[in-house]
Amino acid sequence: MSPSNSGVASVASGAAAAAARPRAGWSFLASELVLLFRRRRTWVLLATLAAIPVLVAVAVRLSTARAPGSGRGPAFLDQITQNGLFVSVVALTICVPLFLPLAVGVVAGDTIAGEAGAGTLRYLLVAPVGRIRLLLVKFAAAIAFCLAATVVITAAGALIGAALFPVGPVVLLSGDTIGVPDSIVRALLIAGYVTVSLAGLTAIGLFVSTLTDAPVGAMAATVVVSIVAQVLDSLPQLDWLHPYLFTHYWLGFADLLRQPVEFSSFSSNALLQLAYVLIFGSLAIGRFTSKDILS
Amino acid sequence: MAQKFTKWIPAAVVPVVIAGVVIAVPMAANATGSLPDKSAQEVLALVASSNVTALSATFEQTSNLGLPQLPTGTGAQGSGSTAQAASALELLTGNHTARVYADSTNGAENMRLQVLDSMAERDVIRSGSDVWLYDSKKQTATHATLPAKSDAATSAPDAGDAASTLTPDQLAAKLLAAVTPTTTVTVGNDLSVAGRSAYDLVLTPQAGDTLIGTVSIAVDGSTGLPLSVTIVPKGSADPAFTTAFTSISFDAPSADLFAFTPPAGTTVTEQALPAEMAKPTGEAGKGTGRSAGKSADRPVVTGTGWSSIVELNVGTDQSALTGSPLFAQLMTPVEGGSVFSTSLVNVLLTTDGRVFAGSVSAEALKAAAAAAPLAAAPAAK
Predict the structure, then answer these.
(1) Which residues sit opposite B340 in a β-bridge?
(2) pLDDT band, residue A74 (cuts 50/70/90)
(3) Interior/surface letters B159-196, b for 16+ CB within 10 angstroms, e for the rest
(4) Is residue B125 helix, strand or coil?
(5) Dihedral pair phi/psi, residue B357, rounded to 5°
(6) Alpha-carbon distance B27 to B18, whole Å?
């Protein structure tokens, strides 16, 4: 990735936005998305995430050749051998606590601080792009990355699972069995759930990113916040606080694997993440609109 | 500078609005419609006349019995009786969310109870006379067939697993059965449980030596179904045990919820019911050797009402239980045995292999152990 390149593209898109006012927001968003997904760093992040289900599947494949599953390891791990579609769920379970927050922290922490650090932020704002609109577009692009990351994990898991293990009816947590098409719907629902789960962290990263000109600092702070929240969530003495932690429902996607589907954790999670997005979004707006842009 | 200050207004307003919504929405949901005043006897009659045949509901159980927090998933480790005891303890002591579906509109008794664990689930499915227990973590399923015309819904298979989770209405039925002349029954202020207006039936034991302070049962104003049970120990303000529906619907659930086929890869065990279950007349002596042994282990109840004490012979071979570190953590050694103490129930395990349990003080249990003759222990052990 070259910083100057990103700056030029953004300035160009800003000019284009000025030319076509009604469609300005969308073309700005489109150019931001192109910018994000053209970066080599984004590709490396997505490839790393995709490698996790592959590693899990290969490891289970090699070990089951020697010994039958013993019921140890993360949830659903021993069901992989019966059904490859579970590789997606296992990989998401592994990624949610650390790898996904890490990837999201890198992208969300980079949003404003990255431009500031590369010295391109003021050029972006010289072009007639409102600061609030810039924040909204940056946030939308980061959410698009969250969606891409979960979809990549789910798809890579399903593909490697189908390649290495039999694919057939899926056994739910309730002991009921559903067919392959139904299980694909559930896998997509889970990907949606995890994407929504990451919205709060993305908003936190966006806010932290407006505080500093050092993108590495913003990335690290975002990842640290997610880890601290998970540590607090595991302390039983703080159980009054747990429902308000943005990490609290992160593993609640298991409720989508029950029969009938339990949607209450999905809606609680969505409301909680919405609250985080509103609070940290408004904080980011307050900070960014009142900030002196020096770089 | 003033302009800069105004930029922060949204950041100040949004958290306030969210805090307002967080506080206001549950209050709006709890706003109760007023119910006609009823006396305690009328509310008891309402419970007795309750005739709910179909429901789909979620309930939550929280308990604060003064026990050390058991790590979740304790039941998965260990083996044999230790694992079973730990699993039963975990169900009793932990906080759980469960869903229940019931439908007996067509005459056949159909019920499904799902204990929603993190990344796992324990199910009890009853369809007519077939009962299935399913544990997704252990990937085991247990099947039992109930004798015809038995009203024992979930108590039939061996206790110690998901069956020992009671829905609020089942627990309330057990507690109301204990209402004796030694209990004062009053009706408190109307409650709102799961969005329904309910009468608050408060049972206060009059017996001096029980650990239970009050038991509150929320009784649905229109159907008479108990919606929540709260047990407060004597001398405490905080409930030690609460189970309450969080959402409830009286629509008939889908029929295929009750049709359970153990999934591929599951260990299936067939469980024969103990003889006294199959023969409610209780002629235990006619049974096989195993059932005869079972009937000798039948609990003996001494005392009445809230302060009754249950005595059970477990035999002197307690090494499987006492050897586990969990046991050492939970039991306090006393003279002549060890005591498992909670704010609601005390259990005394004597060295000669008897268990005394009751909602009474440990001293009362020791007195009962001293009073009960050891000769009652089965000779053929």
Answers:
(1) B331, B347
(2) low
(3) ebbbbbbbbbbbbbbebbebbeebbebebeebbbbbeb
(4) strand
(5) -135, 145
(6) 14
Q: Which residue has better confidence, B31 or A112? A: A112
SS3 at position B329: helix
Burial of residue B61 (CB within 10 Å: 0-12, 13-18, 19+) is buried
Distance from CA of A189 to the nearest CA of B (A): 16
Tens of pLDDT, residue by residue over B154-170, are 444 443 445 567 777 77
The token duo for B71 is 């790590």
CA distances from B335 to A215, B3, B348, B362 (A): 66, 76, 10, 11
At position B221, the amino acid (one-letter code) is G
A258/B13 touch (CB, cutoff 8 Å), yes or no: no
Position with higher pLDDT, A78 vs A121: A121
Amino acid at B290: R
Are the C-beta atoms of residues B126 and B257 closer than 8 Å to each other?
no
Given CATH 3.30.310, say whether it is the number of domain B299-376: yes
Residue contact A275–B18, C-beta within 8 A: yes
Helix (H, G, I), strand (E, B) or coil at B358: strand
pLDDT score of B289 more than 50: no
d(C-alpha A127, C-alpha A134), whole Å: 11
User: pLDDT for A161-197, tens place per residue?
Assistant: 999 988 888 888 888 888 888 888 999 999 999 999 9
Query: Radius of gyration of chain B from Cα atoms?
Result: 24
Whether the CB-CB separation of B122 and B136 falls below 8 Å is answered with: yes
The pLDDT-based confidence of A217 (bands split at 50, 70, 90) is very high
Q: Do A176 and B18 touch (CB under 8 A)?
A: no
Give dist(CA A54, CA A88) in Å, integer. Answer: 10
Strand partners, B184: B204
Test A251 with B18 for CB contact under 8 angstroms: no
Mean pLDDT confidence for B216-240: 89
**Separation CA B250–CA A62 (nearest Å):** 50
Q: Hey, what amino acid is at B158?
A: D
Q: Which residues of B touch A82 (CB under 8 A)?
A: 264-265
> Smallest CA–CA separation between A279 and chain B, in Å?
6
Count of alpha carbons within 13 angstroms of residue B55, beta-carbon side: 21
pLDDT of residue B376: 47
Query: What type of residue is A18?
Result: A
- The rounded distance, in Å, linking the Cα atoms of B261 and A177 is 9
Of A265, A174, A89, which Cα lies nearest the Cα of B139? A174
* Degrees to nearest 5, angle at CA B309 with B305 and B310: 115
B residues 127-186 lying closer than 8 A (beta carbon) to A: 134, 136-139, 141
- Nearest C-alpha of chain B: how many angstroms from A219? 22
> Where do the structural domains in chain B lie, given as residue ranges?
40-257, 299-376
Compute and round to an integer the Cα radius of gyration of chain A.
Answer: 21
3-state secondary structure of B17: helix
Provide φ and ψ at A225, rounded to 5°.
-60, -45
Phi/psi-derived region of residue B149, left when phi > 0, alpha when psi is between -120 and 50, beta in every other case: left
Give the ranges where chain B is alpha helix by DSSP (H).
Answer: 2-7, 9-30, 40-48, 80-93, 168-177, 275-278, 289-296, 319-322, 325-330, 362-371
CATH architecture of the domain B40-257 equals Clam (2.50)
Q: Which of A176, A211, A264, A266 is the best substitution to test chain B (most B C-beta atoms within 10 A)? A: A176
Instruction: Report d(CA A202, CA A222) in Å as an integer.
Output: 8
Measured between alpha carbons, how far is B166 from B111 in angstroms, rounded to an integer?
A: 12
How many H-runs (helices) and E-runs (strands) does chain B carry? Answer: 10, 19
